[in-house]
Amino acid sequence: MSLYYFDNARTPEQRAEMERLDGAGVCLFCPEHLVSHPRQEILFSTEHWNATTNAFPYPGTSLHLLLLPHQHVSDLLALTSEAQNDFWTALAEVDKRYSLTSYGVGVRNGDLRLSGATIAHLHVHVLVAANTDGAPTVRMRFSQ
Fold first, then answer.
1. What is the reported pLDDT for 142?
2. What is the pLDDT of residues 65-117, one digit of tens each?
3. Contact yes or no for 83/71 (Cβ under 8 A)
4. Taking the CB of residue 68, how many other CB atoms lie within 10 A of it?
5. Cα–Cα–Cα angle for 92, 95, 77, nearest 5°?
6. Secondary structure percentages of the chain, helix, strand, coil, to 5
7. Beta carbons within 10 angstroms of residue 44's beta carbon
């Protein structure tokens, strides 16, 4: 199976970038590729996680971050226990840096075709809704 599932791309630009990376055999979220990607700035790192903004944020968000484990897995439960524990450190750092008062956390695990994900590297979405009247409802897809 491919590293990317193109049918879950939200925009033509996102799909084109996924196809480019897949053709090169590059997992964007693995640390060695993340550091050199022009659209993915690492905001901070912990021992087992990187935090970055989402290059393709969901409509209706004022902040859309991704927490990316250094370990290449497609399921939260496949992480080492150390990486699982360090997740809470990374999430607490997001909360501290951005003084969050409300947010959502979303994780998709397993088969990309069924989970709604675009890339076969676990990533945790931290979503903050826009604080404006008329902003669209933030929706995160969890299946086809």
1. 83
2. 999 999 999 999 999 999 999 999 999 999 999 999 999 999 999 899 999 99
3. yes
4. 26
5. 45
6. 30, 20, 50
7. 12
The two tokens of residue 97 are 């840096």
Residues 26 and 40: their CA atoms lie apart, in Å, by 14
For residues 110 and 75, the answer to whether their CB atoms sit within 8 Å is yes
User: What would the two tokens of residue 57 be?
Assistant: 């944020």
CA angle 69, 104, 143 (to 5 degrees): 75
What are the tens digits of pLDDT across the range 120-132?
999 999 999 998 7
Residue 31 is predicted with a pLDDT of 94
* Residue matched to tokens 């196809």: 19
- For residue 36, the model assigns a pLDDT of 81
Nearest alpha carbon to residue 29 among 4, 64, 7 = 4
Which stretches within the chain are classed as H helix? 12-23, 31-34, 81-98, 112-115
Give the DSSP H/E element, type plus range, for residue 38: none
Please give the Cα distance from 5 to 119 (Å, whole number). 6
- 73 and 34 in contact (C-beta within 8 Å)? no
